[in-house]
Write a structure and sequence with these properties.
With about 350 residues, the chain is an alpha/beta fold. The chain has 14 helices and 14 strands. The relative contact order is 0.18.
Length: about 350
């Protein structure tokens, strides 16, 4: 299953931006350049939007549009979004209070669209024969700020595990996964050790674990799922028992506290004034279930995508989360909050 656009080398045309980018252009060389829809943000949401962009470019008819899709992490995407630089931002967490103020200061009004669910997956190399389950307390002892320079061996996390060095791989500070994991596990989104291999690109983290039998990492579910037997997920012992990350366990609301909603944020001015933005985001939301499944992510209930469409069509502005980072929301709780408690972006 395709994951990474430009890195996979199979897109129609590359090279609009450096880094991870997807540019698919159908304009004839003799015509005016196609308008560009720029999208930045979460690497976790990236595979869903990549599937949407490729399908949009392949659709019959319609004016040509270039889609430029870039992984910068949720925080990086929302920074650009609140500066008014991009019309769409992908995020693996709700917009926070600082970003709300930044958007308000620039007059950026937006629509918050839940698109899928995720299970942050804690993984090890398949040659790891000793670890199959880890508790949230053990994860905290390994990943919190006080562990830096101290907790460096598997035996220090669990006395039953071998006295071998442990290598850690995890998201960088611009990642929404970093924020959510540390809030859920360590009580604060910034409470993390920094002596580990960090990247906003989940493919880097996949390789970090794949090549090292002593490694442990965490990242979005679709990146774990796409690797087949090349990674081993650990059961997370949380408030509802010990469960593996899976579509079923998230949909049955058992995988806690590391399940979370995924979003796209759309600038309302661009949506109203730029037909190419409106066409692309409408196309994406109408087929949200299909693209989520293609990307290997966890879909919302089928009927929910019609509610997301309604939110888009009605231009319901603002966030339902008030700048907060809610932990452990089930799918049903996230849906109720997303559609029953629409708030404005204006800070009081």
């Amino acid at each position: 299953m395709l994951r990474t656009g430009a890195r996979a080398g199979v897109v129609v045309l590359l090279g609009v931006w450096l880094g991870t980018s997807l540019t698919a252009m159908r304009a004839d060389a003799q015509t005016a350049p196609a308008p560009v829809v720029r999208i930045e943000g979460s690497s976790t949401v990236f595979p869903i939007m990549e599937a949407a962009a490729k399908a949009f470019q392949a659709r019959p008819g319609g004016p040509p549009v270039s889609i430029a899709l870039k992984e910068t992490g949720s925080s990086g995407g929302l920074r650009s979004f609140c500066r008014g630089e991009i019309p769409i931002s992908n995020s693996s967490r709700p917009i926070n209070s600082k970003e709300l103020k930044d958007c308000a200061a620039r007059g950026v009004r937006f629509i918050e669209l839940p698109l899928a669910f995720d299970a942050i997956s804690v993984v090890v190399n398949p040659r790891n024969t000793w670890a199959s389950r880890i508790s949230t307390a053990q994860l905290s002892s390994l990943w919190n700020r006080k562990a830096q320079g101290r907790i460096q061996r598997w035996k220090q996390v669990n006395p039953a595990w071998p006295d071998r060095p442990i290598s850690l791989c995890g998201p960088g500070k611009d990642s929404g996964t970093f924020d959510y994991f540390n809030k859920a596990i360590n009580g604060d989104s910034g409470n993390s050790r920094s002596d580990y291999t960090a990247s906003e690109d989940d493919n880097v983290l996949v390789r970090c674990v794949e090549k090292n039998p002593q490694a442990l990492g965490y990242f979005g579910f679709s990146y774990y799922r796409s690797q087949g037997g090349r990674l081993k997920a650990l059961e997370i012992a949380g408030p509802k028992g010990a469960w593996l990350p899976s579509v079923n366990n998230v949909q049955r609301e058992r995988y806690q506290p590391l399940s979370r909603p995924l979003f796209v944020y759309v600038n309302d001015k661009d949506l109203r004034e730029r037909p190419e933005v409106r066409r692309f985001i409408t196309f994406t939301v109408q087929r949200g279930l299909r693209f989520t499944e293609q990307a290997g992510a966890i879909p919302l209930p089928k009927d929910t995508y019609r509610i997301v469409e309604s939110k888009l069509y009605r231009h319901l502005l603002g966030t339902s989360f008030g700048g907060d980072l809610p932990i452990g929301l089930t799918i049903s709780q996230a849906i109720r909050r997303s559609f029953a408690e629409i708030r404005t972006t204006s800070p009081r």
